[in-house]
Amino acid sequence: MAEIDQGSDKVPAKKSKPFRKFLTITSLILIAAWFIYYFICGLTYSEGSRSGVLTKVSKKGYLVKTYEGELYVGGFNEGSGTAVVAPRIFYFSVYGSNEHIYKQLDSLQGERVILYYKQVFKNFFWQGETDYFIHEVKIVK
Fold it and tell me: Would you call 140 helix, strand, or coil by DSSP?
């Protein structure tokens, strides 16, 4: 080991620490990536509820299975069959691939329900097909 002479004390020369520098930079990049991921996919953009008739619930995906569904929100007509507002379908995913919510939705197909959702800025393919994630279901009586 190289030594530097400082009077009567001999102090070892400092070695460069490339691995520590690499580890620090990698850690900072991973932390920044996590914050970006959380901001885009984890932060709630809006919250709300939709009511209608639950028409479809399914488990989709080749490698990553997600729970998806459709809610018939309806439309308005004048009574003579002329539609004032065309019927609408609300497409949703189940929050966090929660199997409990999926089973509850599956048993309520064809029923009138209120779905409580959270909307994110953008989702990744393993989260679901839509930006709307259902976290609670209530039956309309």
Answer: coil
